[in-house]
Fold:
Amino acid sequence: MASELARILETKRIEISKMRGKKLPTPPELRRCDLKRILPQPIRVLAEIKFKSPSAGLLSSHLSVAERAAVYDRGGACVVSVLCDERFFGGTYEHLTIAKHACGLPILCKEFVLDEVQLDWARAYGADAVLLIARCVSHDELNRLHRAAIERELVPLVEVATAEEAAWVSDLGCSTIGVNARDLNTLVVDTDNASRILESLPKSRARIHLSGIRTPSDITRLTHLGVDAVLIGEALMRQSDPEPLLRSMVQMTLSPE
Structure:
């Protein structure tokens, strides 16, 4: 049986063929997205907008993309992550533009990137950074996409999920690396494994914990790993009003117990 990731990538290849040659909007001005310097707090919070996922099902639609981006800005996030996949996550590239107009934060395009045309769309619709998932492509393809993102002035956030992926991504010289606690093939979350991988990454890189952060107490555990940022998605998207939870998590990064 094909994994969820395999089904997503199969759909993505069909979408990419339809994206080529489409007229794109003029890219807006970029916002700085250096996760080691963007804010003085010890751990930065990336807050995510996604309306559903294969693992969680339907999430809150109480707030629009614009309303949620504005709430994340008020609540202390340093970046808004926007899911652009429509079929599996309920997003679109247009959500990047909406989020950017609604807040003053950098925007991360979270997609299953297989082709440079997706980078063109991300930049045109307002992304300042883009997710590149190591598991989705070969070593050579990741290297090419990483360079192509930088050429478009997008900050590439490279996602890994295993020690092996972390090793070869580090060797590529990627400066911003995220460790996904959720295995994209099985959808199982293993925060202990993610923690071990994060600790193994060079401290010169921006290190981000992806998935599995649900409560402020989870932040406490991560402060001891020396991570630079955490991405919080499902926990916030289950809230009709995510601001109180986001504020408590941001406060925990400033004053861990």
Remarks:
- DSSP finds ten helices and ten strands in the chain.
- Residues 4-19 form the longest helix (16 residues).
- The chain has a mean pLDDT of 92.
